[in-house]
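Note to self: keep these together.
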Amino acid sequence: MPATTTPAELAALLDADADATILDTRPPESFDAWHLPGAANVPYKPNQPFPADALPDDLDTTDRVLTVCAKGTSSRFLAEELEAAGYRDVSVVAGGMRDWSAVYETVPVVARSDLEIVQVQRRAKGCLGYVVADPNTGMAAVVDATRHVERFRDVADSRGWEVVRVLDTHVHADHISGGRRLADALDIPYHLGANARERDVAYEYEEIERNDTVAVGNVSLKALATQGHTTDLTSYLVEDAAVLTGDALFVDSVGRTELEFGDADADRGARLQHGSLHRTLLALPDAVTVLPGHASVAADGTWTPTPPGQPVKAILGRLRDRLPLLSLSEDAFVDRLTASAPAKPPNYERVIAINRGREEAESETELTELELGPNNCAID
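Structure:
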């Protein structure tokens, strides 16, 4: 019987650049949209003939082979076929791409005597959330929690911090927010920027007005209205150290604008985005660290510009100089953002409706399926 490799073990193998061949049994369209780094597509369903002709030409029976599929079913059948054909080192990725989507890394990105910020990286999607803490009082806030809220609680619990606030930068389009659920579980305030009222949000939350601050112990988070990606996007300036930019500004790109505004009104969103960047974010001191809401993850699972497990951050002054989009005039910026938007995130309208509280997911299975694939919230 084939062995099993957990998603966490798979992550360690990929990080170590281990000598292994990954065979993905999903249909080509699913594979092309999103797959593991270095994987080869060998479409296969249970009870089909052994797909010998589809295997990589250089695959040897002595090679280490991992099989993966959507949930771990068809990949197990292929692994059994490989063993029967004489392959000696075969294992199945447990839970397939479904469970791979729930692998996280935690990376300290700010460490001072009076302030600590930990970046919580969702490896498959590139989603980045944060735990912001005053280490002297032990109080913390969570910003942009994904639905796997236990990952954020674990960060705080392992450091002896008490989470006292939860904030979202905006109504997300590519993943289900866990912010409300985390706040409800801990019976603490849940915050959105004041412009969230424009999104017809159906649930209760505590508004943060432009330039207002909320306290986490002796650490303050200041709300910066940064419309463009969405009308409600609010970045948070954490003391003089860092700015949590959500999907307004990434370390290698900026947020797309037509997911809320639509293609017909994308021009308006792009102009708002340009204003938010130049009049708000780029007006901050050069030394501020930019901590974005996403890393860039390609369809083949590779991260840029840094690998998972490494800090995704940039010094604002350096980012201003090296990101070409930031040097464009307003008209040129608008033309660039509206001319060639990438493919929209899968199921984004349903995801937005759930995050606005206007619809409910039918099951945990549906939530998993809605989120499969990398994020597509950036444009460069």
